[in-house]
Amino acid sequence: MAGQEQHRRRRVVLFPLPFQGHITPMLHLGALLHARGLAVTVLHTGFNAPDPARHPELAFVPIREAFPAEVTSPGADIARQLLALNAASEAPFREALASLLRGGGGHLHDVACAVVDGQCYAGLRASSQLGVPALALRTDSAATFRSLLAYPRLRDAGYVPVTEERLDEPVPDLEPLRVRDLIRIDGSDADELCSFVARVAGAVLSSACGVVVNTSEGMEAPELAAIRRELSRPAFAVGPLHLLSRAPAPAEQTLRAADRGCLAWLDARPPRSVLYVSLGSVAAVGRAAFEETAWGLAGSGVPFLWVVRPGSVAGAGDDEAPPPLPDGFGEETRGRGKVVAWAPQREVLAHAAIGAFWTHCGWNSTLESVCEGVPCSCSRASRTRWRTRGT
Asked: In the chain, where are the structural domains located?
C-alpha cells in the first residue's frame, strides 16, 4: 500500500467555459499538465461538449447541467448568457467536483487543485467552498483582464457604462487605454454587463489563489506585473498555449468540422498571396456589413480564403447553415476566392500562401497570427468590444 501511495499522481481538475475560444486553450493546458506527470480530469457541460477521443490522455466527466434557453440559443445576449450559464452550472459543478473528492467514478488520485475558466465565477466559488485550491484561467490578454479587474472602480467613477461623450478620455491607471477601449457588448444591458464583470473580478479576489494567463512575459510584462501587484496573488504567464501543447494542429478540439480542402487550395497559391478572413467562432455582424465585406473582397483583386460559418450574420434566421452570399459574388470571385464554413485555422495561418489575416481580434487568433508572423487587419465584430491591446 505504501508503494502504491508513493506512485499515485496528483490530479488537476479543469472546468472550461463551453465555447470554442475557451475550450481549446483549457485542453492545451490539460495536455501540458499531463505531460508533466499530473493526472487531469476535465469537468464539462453537455452543451458544446468536447470530444474525449481527441484527448485520450485526459479523463472527461460531464456535470449534467440543465441550461435555459438564454445559454443555448444562437445569438443570445452575451452578458445575459454568461450570467445564466454561471447560475445553472454552479450546483452541478459542485456535485461533480465533490464526487471526485470522494473518489467517485474511479478517479482515485488526490485532487491537487482546480483550474476554472475565469468567466466561470460560480465554478471558482464552488471550488473554494469545497476546500479545493482554485486557479482562474484567463483565455484573454493580460491587458483585457487588467481592465476587467478595474471595472468596479471605473463604474464608481462614472467611466462605465460607456457613454459617447467620454469615448476619447484617458482611463486613469490604465494608460494608454481610452474609454472607447473598455469592455462593451453591443446590445447587452449595461447593468447586466456590469454585474457579470463585477462577479468575475470579485470571484478572483475571494475564491482564487492565483491566475493562469494565456500570454507571455515577452508580450505583456507590464500588464502581468500590474495584475500581480493589484491581486497580491500569483499570475502565471503560460502562453502561447497552442505552441506549448504537444497535440498536432489536426488533432485540435473544435466544435465545428473544419473544411480541410482549403489547405489543398492554398497549396496551389503563390507564397504570401492570400488574405485569410475569419471573425471567430461566436461573433456576428449585420447583413449590411456582411455584404460590404463580400463586395470589398470581390473588388480588392486579392486572392482570399473566407470563413463564413453558420450564425455569422446576426438575425439571419438559420444558424444551421452558412448565410447566403450576395448574388453575383461567386461569379465575380471565381478562381480567386474560396469560401468555407470553418477552417483549420492554425494550419491555415502556418501555410506559406497566407499573406495577411483579417480578424475580429480575438485573443486566440491574435496569438496564432503573431506566432506565425502573419500581419493582421483587425475589425471588431458587431456584438462585442473586447479589448485586445497591442494588435
From this structure: 2-250, 256-378
Provide the pLDDT for residue 358.
94
Secondary structure letter of residue 179 according to DSSP: G
pLDDT at 387: 46
Contacts 24+ apart (CB under 8 A), 185-190: 185/77, 185/78, 185/79, 185/383, 185/384, 185/385, 186/382, 186/383, 186/384, 186/385, 187/77, 187/383, 188/77, 188/78, 188/79, 188/80, 189/77, 189/79, 189/80, 190/160, 190/161
> Residue 318: enclosing H or E segment and its boundaries?
none
Residues of 287-308 as b/e, b for ≥16 C-beta within 10 angstroms?
A: eebbbebbeebbeeeebbbbbb
Residue 334: the pLDDT is: 92
State the catalytic residues.
Answer: 22, 117
Side chain identity at 275, as an amino acid letter?
L
Helical spans, DSSP H, in the chain: 2-7, 20-35, 69-72, 78-101, 121-129, 142-149, 151-156, 190-207, 217-231, 241-244, 261-267, 287-300, 329-333, 345-349, 363-372
How many Cα neighbours within 13 Å face the side chain of 245?
Answer: 22
DSSP string over 46-71: STT---GGG-TTSEEEE------HHH
Task: Please tell me the pTM assigned to this model.
Answer: 0.86
CATH class, range 2-250 = alpha beta
Exposure b/e, 147-182, CB count within 10 A at least 16 = b: bbbbbeebbeeebbebeeeeeeeebeebeebebebb
What pLDDT digit, counting tens, does each position of 131-159 carry? Answer: 999 999 999 999 999 988 998 888 888 88
Look at residue 183 in the predicted model and tell me its pLDDT.
79
In one letter, which amino acid is 249?
A
What number of CA atoms fall less than 13 Å from residue 157's CA on the CB side?
13
Report residues of the chain scoring pLDDT below 70.
1-8, 104-109, 186-187, 246-255, 315-320, 380-391
pLDDT tens, position by position, 72-100:
877 778 888 999 999 999 999 999 999 99
Grid coordinates given for 61: 466527466
CATH superfamily of 256-378: Glycogen Phosphorylase B; (3.40.50.2000)
Hey, is 43 helix, strand or coil? strand
- Three cell numbers at 357? 489575416
Tell me how far apart the alpha carbons of residues 38 and 47 are, in angstroms, rounded to a whole number: 27
**Residue 188: predicted pLDDT:** 72
